[in-house]
């Protein structure tokens, strides 16, 4: 099960269109552009907008709270998609 964590603090369960794996286009649609991956503290994959900080996207407090401790002091901006390992190829 994947979750879309939006900057307005809403969290929505989302599913790949094919029912198995998210495509690159789907990932880009969820985060609003090119993306990069980080791991959260539960070792799930978080997809974030690669240029979010440069584009001054809004701070995402809920997603930031889920960051892996190795990213302590960093912050996430924009909408964030959190997936299980097998939901992306």
Please explain how this structure is put together:
This protein is an alpha+beta fold. It has one domain (2-80). It has helices spanning 24-31, 61-65; strands spanning 2-5, 11-14, 35-39, 45-49, 80-83. It has a 5-stranded antiparallel beta sheet.
Quick structural gist:
This protein has 89 residues and is α+β, with helices and mostly antiparallel strands. It has helices at 24-31, 61-65; strands at residues 2-5, 11-14, 35-39, 45-49, 80-83.
Question: Mind sketching the topology for me?
Answer:
Layout: E1 2-5, E2 11-14, H1 24-31, E3 35-39, E4 45-49, H2 61-65, E5 80-83
Antiparallel strand pairs: 1-2, 1-5, 3-4, 4-5
Defining traits:
89 residues; alpha+beta; five-stranded antiparallel beta sheet; 2 helices; globular
């Amino acid at each position: 099960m994947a979750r879309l964590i939006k900057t307005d603090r809403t969290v929505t369960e989302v599913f790949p269109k094919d029912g198995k794996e998210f495509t690159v286009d789907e990932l880009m649609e969820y985060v609003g552009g090119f993306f990069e991956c980080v791991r959260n503290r539960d070792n799930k994959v978080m997809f974030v907008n690669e240029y979010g900080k440069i584009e001054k996207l809004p701070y995402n407090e809920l997603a930031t709270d889920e960051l892996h401790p190795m990213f302590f002091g960093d912050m996430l901006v924009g909408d964030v998609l959190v997936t299980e390992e097998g939901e992306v190829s």
